[in-house]
Design a protein that fits this description.
By secondary structure, this protein is an alpha/beta fold. The strands form three sheets. It has a six-stranded mixed beta sheet. Strands 9-8-10-11-7-12 form a six-stranded parallel beta sheet, sandwiched between helices. A six-stranded parallel beta sheet has the order 15-14-16-17-13-18. Strand 4 and strand 5 (about 70-75) form a beta hairpin. It has 34 helices and 18 strands. Helix 28 (about 660-670) runs antiparallel to helix 29 (about 675-685).
Length: about 775
């Protein structure tokens, strides 16, 4: 039987997210069947080149096929599909697929797609509401970079360096991180290279969920590292790392010395940016001309003040602890290449946010490995100088890299959003006047969709703007109430709110996902709101312009800017001429921004997720979300935390009658995904004190995918529940299902271990046999 790969374009995923529950399920059935080679009720569409449709009731899925690979282009209700697909038997020539999805000069191979693999993610809800992001496919453009890295391993370093190095300087949305992640996993899996993929802390957990990376990390091999730079340093030399001052220790020492020599008053405090300026422009080991650094020029006076703090005095305050860069040098000087492979690929994502000294330390380490150990070493840097959000001394030119590349296509943003974001990049260019030329931004024509104009909601005052947040919260809650069975659908309707500063009483409104502007970097959303980000006075600074450019490249399709008239008047009104302006009486604008689902990065607030679940269970009638366990998996909640959540859920469920719980059990049978249905069934059975029936139901998971951890985790949770109730024998017998043995001190251990059945019956029979054989108990 042939194996089929199903890829789905992102635009199709976005449309599927909006479908009502019954159509959502039908699309899932069609696509799952296609992955099995069952095309259902299908036919070729007249007037289109190699375009096909499968229908089921009122749902249509439009696809094309190349050998054993299906590409899903459009999916949804019939009435919406045929607004875009108009058949014509006499059309000549036939319409090409590229024209169907409106990608202009680009090829279908350039379109960002995601693999649906039911054996790896059998929960359709989990896939559609964020899981799809973890199964991306390299585009044609990204594959070229991949080949360049492979070729680098065949040659020694160039005149610039003794190692091969590669830089990808590209605008946001061009897929740099995806490219690095997929390259790292493939080069490890196929070539068995040593891999170090260094990521910002905010991206680590998400990248570790990529299908290929997740599979490798489960093996726990030493020569495949994914994490932060600090984590890599700790792993490379834990003893030395323990001698390095923490960020808080170094900041505290810097602050104390600044107070001592009156750089600041005793009631003043330094912040993390002050420490970064000190590290980058004062404690730096390299000596390059700094006057062309825009960050240096903007902070020149303050850097001059910080220079009054001598390194030797700072070191004295730290005692036996090393300052950061000394620690980095000590660790890299002592690090040795791993022997599992003769090639190491060291990747820095968002490289522009690292100190030149940090990168140089890695370069020297890799050079030493290559020279002393004949160990091939490749340095791969990805980043964008236009997205610097920390006052760093980074400059590509000082690294003397061998090769540079640029990813052309923007896979994230629409043309309208790029035009808006690029207009703020112009302010960065103005602030940088006289300095090094800034890199090029993505051209709007290199985006894949036209999109819709950015909307500006203009408020007369800050008070009026804050009131909009309350209205937005109410709008989201109303929308969420319409969907009764999906917590992922509910959570995905939360509005992503990127802000600079919000009063405390408005900082925790339900339905809003608050993101500080510096936390938005590296993330992307279908739609988001930028709230009061233009606060300030006068000509925009280089740092402000970089922040705005970063913020406005986060949304893929829709962006709503909420700003006061005073904020907008910082700029010429003509700056916003391609935007649509609205005032606070226009409620349609709030409908517009809440329409798109934001299925990604939903679960930073685990407590909030749990509270929604508990609230539903407490309702009359009970509200059980059918994709609860899909939400747990997307939130990366570990088994111990799931146990705690289930314990609280069982307490709440005990307030409902058994009839209601049994009715819910019957309803749950409709859930298609075993990974979503079986744990939910077991939860209800535990609430009904039917733990052994729960064990029997759980065994279905083992039959579906014996390699997965889900079955073992579920059995452990059932056993833990029994143990907390004091049923130690029963808990131990349940654990036997996953290969654990009864404790040695359990009476009648041997007799119980080898038999199924009720415990009381087994114990009584064992006691009777013992009395009959020995005359005593």
């Amino acid at each position: 039987m042939p194996v089929y790969t199903v890829r789905i374009v992102r635009a199709a995923v976005r449309e599927i997210q909006k479908l009502p529950h019954e159509y959502f399920k039908l699309v899932a059935e069609i696509i799952k069947n296609i992955s099995d080679g069952n095309l259902g009720d299908y036919r070729k569409l007249e007037g289109y080149k190699d375009l096909w449709r499968t229908k089921k009731h009122d749902v249509r899925v439009i696809w094309t096929k190349n050998q054993n690979q299906f590409l899903i282009l459009i999916a949804g209700q019939r009435k919406d599909i045929y607004k875009r697909i108009i058949e014509d038997i006499n059309r000549n020539p036939e319409i090409d697929i590229a024209d169907v999805i409106d990608i202009g000069e680009k090829t279908v191979e350039d379109v960002p797609t995601y693999i649906w693999n039911p054996t790896q993610t059998n929960s359709w809800n989990q896939f559609v509401y964020g899981g799809y992001l973890y199964s991306p496919v390299l585009t044609q453009e990204q594959k070229a970079i991949f080949q360049e890295v492979i070729n680098s391993s065949l040659h020694s370093g160039s005149n610039h360096s003794n190692i091969n190095s590669l830089l990808v300087q590209s605008a946001p949305g061009t897929g740099k991180t995806v490219c690095a992640a997929l390259m790292a996993s493939e080069l490890y899996a196929n070539n068995y290279w040593n891999i170090a993929l260094i990521l910002p802390e905010t991206l680590c957990a998400e990248i570790k969920e990529f299908t290929e990376i997740k599979e490798i990390l489960q093996i726990r091999e030493a020569n495949f590292f994914v994490g932060t730079f600090a984590e890599w340093l700790h792993q490379a030399a834990p003893d030395i790392y323990e001698t390095v001052a923490t960020v808080s220790q170094e900041l505290q020492a810097l602050q104390s010395q600044a107070r001592k020599i009156h750089v600041i008053d005793n009631n003043e405090y330094l912040n993390i940016n002050d420490l970064i300026l000190f590290r980058g422009f004062i404690a730096n080991k390299h000596k390059h001309e700094q006057s062309d650094y825009p960050i240096y020029r903007e902070n020149k006076h303050w850097i001059g003040e910080l220079k009054k703090i001598k390194l030797s005095e700072l070191q004295q305050r730290l005692g036996n602890k090393k300052i950061w860069i000394d620690g980095v040098n000590a660790i890299t000087e002592n690090a040795r290449p791993l022997q599992q492979s003769n090639t190491t690929l060291f990747i820095f994502d968002e490289a522009q946010d690292y100190l030149i000294d940090e990168i140089n330390a890695i370069v020297k380490m890799l050079e030493r490995w290559q020279q002393d150990s004949n160990h091939a070493s490749i340095l791969f840097l990805l980043g964008d100088m236009n997205q610097r959000i920390t006052p760093i001394d980074f400059n590509w030119g000082h690294l003397k890299l061998n090769k540079r590349h640029n990813l052309k296509y923007n896979y994230r943003n629409t043309k309208y959003i790029l035009e808006f974001a690029n207009s703020f990049h112009l302010f960065a260019q103005q602030a940088n006047s006289g300095g090094k030329k800034l890199p090029e931004v993505s051209k709007p024509e290199e985006a894949f969709e036209q999109g819709e104009p950015v909307r500006i909601l203009e408020c007369t005052s800050q008070e009026e703007a804050l009131k909009i947040l309350n209205d937005l919260s109410d709008k989201v809650r109303y929308t969420c109430a319409l969907e009764q069975r999906s917590i992922l659908r509910l959570l995905s309707n939360q509005v992503k709110l990127i802000y600079q500063d919000i009063p405390e009483q408005y900082s925790n409104l339900p339905g809003l996902d608050y993101i500080k502007f510096h936390q938005a970097k590296g993330r992307e959303f279908d739609a988001c709101v930028a709230f009061s980000v233009f606060k300030g006075q006068g000509q925009p600074s280089f740092e402000e312009a970089n922040n705005w450019y970063t913020i406005f490249t986060r949304p893929r399709y829709r962006l709503l800017v909420i700003a006061t008239t005073d904020e907008i008047n910082r700029f010429e009104r003509s700056h916003f001429q391609k935007c649509q302006f609205f005032n606070t009486s226009n409620i349609d604008t709030l409908d517009w921004i809440t329409e798109w689902a934001n299925g990604e990065h939903l679960f930073k607030d685990i407590t909030g997720l749990c509270n929604i679940i508990y609230e539903g269970l407490s309702n009359q009638p009970v509200q059980i979300y059918w994709d609860t366990y899909a939400a747990f998996r997307l939130a990366r909640i570990d088994n111990n935390k799931v146990t705690q959540i289930e314990e609280q859920a069982i307490k709440i469920l005990a307030n409902h009658s058994k009839e209601i719980l049994y009715e819910e059990l019957r309803q749950i049978q409709q859930i298609d995904s075993p990974s979503d249905r079986i744990p939910l069934q077991c939860l209800l059975l535990m609430a009904l004190d039917s733990s052994w029936e729960a064990v029997q139901v759980a065994s279905e998971l083992q039959n579906i995918n014996p390699q997965e951890q889900e079955y073992e985790n579920l059995i452990l949770r059932i056993a833990d529940r029994l143990q907390r109730k004091g049923l130690l024998y029963e808990a131990a017998r349940v654990r036997m299902k996953i290969g654990m043995h009864l404790p040695e001190d359990f009476p009648f251990r041997e007799e119980i271990s080898n038999h199924e059945g009720y415990l009381v019956t087994l114990l009584c029979n064992a006691a009777i046999d013992k009395i009959g054989n020995t005359g005593e108990l």
